[in-house]
Amino acid sequence: MNNISNEEFDCHFLNEGFTAKDLLDQTIDEVSSSNDKDAFSAADLGDILKKHLKWLKALPWYTYPFYAVKCSDRTIGKTLVVIGTGFDYASKTEIQIVQSFGVPPGRIIYANPRKQVFLIKYDATNGIQMMTFDSEVELMKVARAHPKAKLVLDCKAVHRLSVKSGAILKTKQAKELNIDVIGVSFHMGSGCTDPEIFMQAISDAPCFDMGAEVGFNMYLLDIGGGFPGSEYAKLKFEEIARVINPYFPTDSGVTLIAEPGRYYVASAFTLAVNIIAKTLVLKEQTGSDDEDELSEKTFMYYVSDGVYGSFNCIFYDHVHGKHLLQKHPKPDERYSSSSMWPTCDSLDRIVECYGLPKMHVGDWMLFENMGAYTAAASILNGFQRLTIYYVMSGSAWQLMWQV
Ligand SMILES: *Cc1c(COP(=O)(O)O)cnc(C)c1O
């Protein structure tokens, strides 16, 4: 059960057969006749539900996702509370967000091996037990502030060859301090492109025999985040699932958790930006002034949002949104194009691509997969930078309350 009511969702319900993309097009039509041409985004909450169902189907049935809350905003969080995921937090701001969703303490993990003491105390007071650690210093902080914590040993920091011995040492230290260690975790890092790396990490994880050796009942394996959130990612979610599954029979007795972030949200968001200026760059002068007679040409479009805004993900996260064409080019009308933000900073290049139709000032460009680690999808310090329209189909809404 949860205490979220329907009214709390600030969400447009889509009529049968009407999609989030249709709503974007409709909104573009509406704002085009006004003076307000600010960028905006549409978030399809049904897409998040779809991701969750895919998760349940592809991974071992006992894989419990703890959503990495650094990714996104309130409405997304509330959707995930209803669906029933857990939450992974790493900072004060994040735990405040998670608590404001009304998430039960058993569904929260403090997944930062370098912890702030006041947050450890906060967890103790609020019944949050799971947290990661990676060193004796962290163990001592926990022993003082939250002796009943259930610790998960973060193996990322440990050199691979010495994973086992390092892990045994730290587990022994926990035993001496009388703190419970329930399992191990690793976070592959985001943007992992090789499924073998997942496989390696799982087979290297110094697991449960080690617990027995030290006298702990270790039963939890946290496989971290890094699951791709869009179908354009090099490494597909299904490939990761295929690598993971053979290690976990239906009755493995292991509690498997993960910390997906982008996986749940990336593809839910589409950003619409307006073209505010345009220039033509020639690679080869043909002596003609006519735009349509030039052979090698690139159009530069300056749009109303950029890498210092919604596209911050390009620097921060090496993720590029993908152009979604609002109008389709004829075969002989495909131009190479760059989209820029109007600061005129040469770094502020959003995307370069070939095959866009010729666009005009006042046209809109759409970018898919803008849901993770972008300002298009988040409320920063309580201020929403741009308008987000949340949408969901009636059938997804009903299904959401049943999963
Ligand atoms: C950011 C982060 C995640 C989520 O990463 P994604 O690539 O978005 O899945 C998971 N765990 C930790 C510790 C993180 O810092």
UniProtKB/TrEMBL annotation:
Cofactors demanded by this protein = pyridoxal 5'-phosphate
Q: What class of enzyme is it?
A: lyase
Active site per the UniProt annotation:
344 (proton donor)
Q: Where is the Orn/DAP/Arg decarboxylase 2 N-terminal domain?
A: 45-266
Q: Give residues where N6-(pyridoxal phosphate)lysine occurs.
A: 70
Question: What's a BP term from Gene Ontology annotated to this protein?
Answer: putrescine biosynthetic process from arginine, via ornithine
Name the keywords, alphabetized: Phosphoprotein, Pyridoxal phosphate
- What Pfam families has UniProt attached to this entry? Orn_Arg_deC_N
What does UniProt give as GO cellular component?
A: cytoplasm
The Swiss-Prot or TrEMBL record annotates one GO molecular function as: ornithine decarboxylase activity
The EC number(s) attached to this protein equal 4.1.1.17
Reactions catalysed: L-ornithine + H(+) = putrescine + CO2
**Cited SUPFAM superfamilies:** Alanine racemase C-terminal domain-like, PLP-binding barrel
Per the record, the pathway is: Amine and polyamine biosynthesis; putrescine biosynthesis via L-ornithine pathway; putrescine from L-ornithine: step 1/1
Q: What is this protein called?
A: Ornithine decarboxylase
Source organism (scientific name): Myotis lucifugus
